[in-house]
Amino acid sequence: MMDKWINNNTISKILALAVAVLLWGMVHLDTGTPSSTLTVSYNNKVIDNVAIQASGLDDSKYVLSTMDTDHVKMEVRGQRSVLTSFFADNYQAKLNLNGLGAGTKTLSLEPDLPDGVELVSMTPNRVTVTIEEKQTKSFNVSIVPKGNPDAGLQLGKPVIAPQTVKVTLPKSQLSTVTAVQGAVNTDGISEKFEQKRVKLKAYNKKGQELTGAVIEPSTVSVEIPVTQQAKSVPVKIVYSGELPDGLALSKVNANVKEAAVYASQDVLGSLSSYVTATLDLSQFTEAGTRAVQANLAAPSGSDKIEPGSIQIQVTVVPSNEVTDTERTLSGIPIVLQGAGDGATATVTAPAGKTMDVTVKGPQDMVNNLTNDDISLVADVSGLAAGQHEVTLKVGLPKYITQAGNASQLKATVNIESPSTPAVTNPNSENESNPSGSGEKGQERPQEGQGSQSGDSDAKTGDNAAAEDKTNPHNGADSSANGTSENSQP
């Protein structure tokens, strides 16, 4: 009988329904009646320095220039296990700037909290912001080399591409931009410097970087040539050999007036005032005009000299056809020579320690003379302590002579020995310059001093002359523009 019920379809369905209803009731009974042993703990937590995150501003047109605070303090509540599982970085205060333009506004903040955490309070809950409109302006780019190249080399002018860039900043900051620069390392380089991408930065007048600047393009390419250090110095012509009897120099002109000497900074700093080219007079055997080449002498320690040679146009004429012209050069300094050991010699008259000298010679040479081409020497060799009137020795370039009476060039000299008091000339301040020059000058050493005429006073006897600048048979030199000079540079 039992088997018959079990095999009956209807009876099986009724049993299945009954079991289902029983299970449903058991489940709902458990959910509605919580266990008396389960407890949940809720705690409060204070979080300082929660960052404010601004968003929504049109960065292409505007910039958030100021915000009265960039953080808030939050108090939150949640289960202890939830609160301890999050760090301060998981909490944020949202600031919505969507659709806002330039100006100052006070806006509400929205908390952004982790799941399972609720806000108790937020201080402050509003913030005042200032939004500025961006502006763009073009600036020239400059490059700042850092470090020095190898010894004897110098950096040329940087070649920058592009030379100008656009800088975008808030209006208040754009007006403070004074330079857009890139820095390159040139320490120890020995050849042309090249860098394709040099990053640019904008700076204000205090040299501070404006970090918010948008620079377009942000990089430039840079090339910096490297050359040897050079100094331009005048070219002077010195002579060797002699012209045949009956011939005289009329004009000497060089096609180059200055030359560039390449050397280290130390060598360039010690260079003399000119470089020389030697002209051999013995190659001219007849009257006429010729162009000849002469090499320039590179100074000791220099790397090279440019140009290495010059062209000199020389005019030679019969001696009887040379037409002399006169010229007075003012303010030639008087140089003292020959003071004994321990003695001190001082020019007391003329008061300015300079004199005027009138010279004559070929017109072209005379016109190109300078004060450096003439020397005035007061030789006090053998003179005792006291005041003396000394005839000056005049040193002149070759083919230039003194016009007038050479003995008229005299100076008053006071000599003091270590044990002799100073002797002053009460009339020295009012004494006129015998040659008409009262300009002040400094006593200075003179190269190639010589004597054309005159002796010192009777106490000195005949003094040995210094190197003769005036002897037409001695080697002489001239400046590149044709002026004759002493052969010793």
TrEMBL record:
<dbReference type="Pfam" id="PF07949">
    <property type="entry name" value="YbbR"/>
</dbReference>
<feature type="compositionally biased region" description="Polar residues">
    <location>
        <begin position="472"/>
        <end position="489"/>
    </location>
</feature>
<feature type="compositionally biased region" description="Low complexity">
    <location>
        <begin position="425"/>
        <end position="437"/>
    </location>
</feature>
<feature type="compositionally biased region" description="Basic and acidic residues">
    <location>
        <begin position="456"/>
        <end position="471"/>
    </location>
</feature>
<dbReference type="InterPro" id="IPR053154">
    <property type="entry name" value="c-di-AMP_regulator"/>
</dbReference>
<dbReference type="InterPro" id="IPR012505">
    <property type="entry name" value="YbbR"/>
</dbReference>
<protein>
    <recommendedName>
        <fullName>YbbR family protein</fullName>
    </recommendedName>
</protein>
<feature type="region of interest" description="Disordered">
    <location>
        <begin position="417"/>
        <end position="489"/>
    </location>
</feature>
